[in-house]
UniProtKB/TrEMBL annotation:
Organism: Streptacidiphilus alkalitolerans
Protein name: YegP family protein
Gene3D superfamilies: YegP-like
Any Pfam family hit: DUF1508
InterPro entries associated with the record: DUF1508, UPF0339_domain, YegP-like_sf
Lineage top rank: taxon: Bacteria
Database matches in PANTHER family: PTHR40606, UPF0339 PROTEIN YEGP
Domain DUF1508: 10-57
Signal peptide, first to last residue: none
Length: 59
C-alpha cells in the first residue's frame, strides 16, 4: 500500500481529510470543511505546498 489521502465525514457532519503513510499510520489531518469538495481541495493544497516545502527549526 502507498501513502494516500482519505476524505471522510465526521460526527459533526463536516468533511475532513487525513494523510496516511504506507504503513497505515495517520501522519497529517485537515480541518473540517462544510463540503466534500472543500476537503478534496484541502488535499490538493497540501500536495502542492508539500512539494515545495523545506524543513526549518521552530523559532
Amino acid at each position: 500500500m502507498s501513502a494516500h489521502f482519505e476524505v471522510y465525514e465526521d460526527k459533526a457532519h463536516l468533511w475532513r481529510f487525513r494523510l496516511k503513510a504506507a504503513n497505515g499510520e495517520v501522519v497529517a489531518t485537515g480541518d473540517g470543511f462544510p463540503t466534500r469538495s472543500g476537503a478534496e481541495q484541502g488535499c490538493e493544497a497540501v500536495k502542492q505546498a508539500a512539494a515545495e516545502a523545506d524543513t526549518r527549526d521552530a523559532a
